[in-house]
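Dear support,

We are seeing what looks like truncated structure output for some complexes. This example has two components. We would appreciate it if you could run it in full and send us the complete token output so we can diff it against ours.
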Amino acid sequence: MDQFIQQIINGISLGSIYALIALGYTMVYGIIKLINFAHCDVYMLGAYIGYYCMTFLHLGVVPSLLIAMILCTLLGVLIEKIAYKPLRNATRIAVLITAIGVSLFLEYGTMYFVSPQVRTFPPHIVKSMSAGIKLGNINLTFMQLMIVSVTVLLMVLLQLTVKRTRIGKAMRAVSLDVDAAELMGINVDTTISFTFALGSALAGAAGVLVGLYYNSINPLMGLLPGLKAFVAAVFGGIGIIPGAMIGGYFIGMVETFVAGYGYSMYRDAVVFAILILILIVKPAGLLGRNVREKV
Amino acid sequence: MVKQLNKKALIKPLALLVTFFIVQLLIQFNIINYYYQDILATICINIILAVSLNLITGFTGQFSLGHAGFMSIGAYACALTIQRVPTVYGFIAGVILGAMLAAFAGLLVGLPTLRLKGDYLAIATLGLSEIIRVMFINLDSITNGAAGLYLQYRFVNWFWLFVLTVMTVVLISNFVKSSHGRACISIREDEIAAEAVGINTTKYKVMAFMIGSFFAGVAGAVYASYFYFIEPNLFGFSKSIDILVVVVLGGLGSLSGSILAAAVLALISSFLQSFAAIRMVLYAVLLILIMLFRPGGLMGSRELSVAMLVELRKEAIAWLKAMPAKVLSAVRSITKGTGKHGGDKSASKGRFEG
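Here is the complete output from our reference environment:
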């Protein structure tokens, strides 16, 4: 029973991270129908920015988190402007290949500049974060508390932005119908950039949190979590914000339980098997509705 | 007229034979040493992989990111066969077995997933190749897990490389030119229209996927036998990307483009071997630039011929003349935000929309 509760706690922590990353995928997909492969590298760079802030600037966790989020926001907007915007009218496969190109560029560019070696965060910060509350055999660390609270806070902020602000309204309009939105006087380019900015900020936050949680970062760390977060987004119904949250927590739980009960070698395979099952059984995802094909 | 046709039909086989013997002689006199032989093998394997992926992605328009997974099936099947039967016959059996198993995997995978469109298919195939990789890592007793398999004998020489590469290219190019191939191309151009004129789109998509996987299996078998050593991580996501880069660079829907690009990229990467990070950065920049300026790949969907070279020269001159204006407008659209946006509607009318 203790182990079960412990697994749930671990699962929620991991799921929070996946949910944060999945939100970025789902918003971008909702608005321009693109799997932004570069998203997972924004997350990786977030981890590196956090690392440099803590190691060389000796900042605390919260300031580092904020700096990483701001810089990742800028990076996300920059990527959109340089790589994706000239391709607004191109075929989807062309944009997808560009996204893979941007992703490779960020990964190996980072590898070139900071070397592929694995890095760890300053020990005193890691130590203070991994302390925590012990209830019998159940361990709840500050890190896990922080991951969950930061995630919930960011999700609430995101929901408020999307539902209550003008730009949020514009985002919803553009994702519904680009041409109509433009005819109503919405600046589509600004809206798309804003979407990238929001998603990248969340990814940056996730990067710092994961870096601290596992205390090891490297230039290719984004690849697998990125794919899994995408699976989470698809699970919940891509383009749907609450769907990404549900999907993130679900995938996090599944992965933790598979690993926790002795099949850790198979956990990646299980996640992808879930993806394929969903795609076959309910391609629109848990919360998605099937759209009929029109000629 | 008939005589002329016969002559023309003879040129290609003759040219191939001459190439074969020249290279064979160069190897015999050690002008092509072991180092260059390795590059030659890499080129041939890459050609098989790129041409087979081109059938799936370039001709049929189904975006697959899991080609390395099928390659690994062929590689492991062949390696395990050779370990049990260490003769040339074992190698031949291994190639056939590997290719068949890869094609079978392609069928299993293709039937459910090819109902998916475009980017969903890409992610599903990526997930599948990851599953295959994890399976190979975990089937310790058979595949020796993450440590990989060593082979003691090499049965692949220039003869086999040449025969298998030429066979792949000829078979796929004949397939593309057949009525089946035209059905595949029609699916790429417009799936709904193809269905409306009575083409069984699922059948042809699965067919293309199976043939592509078959030859990916062949490439894997050749790889295992030539390079002695295979491990599951050789066939990860980055291998699939490597193959995709070749196909995109050469042109989606151009077999000769794939062949050229496979050769050029193999040479580039062997020069940049000690700078792995730079090589990948270069690949990345290449991908982005090609998509920004020539979304159909360098050759588009055209094949190499004399007429094409003449046309290409004209086009290159025109392109160079238009270049300054193009760069200007690209820069302007980035900085000012005057680019036209069509969003999902116009984007989904693309050539490759599944």
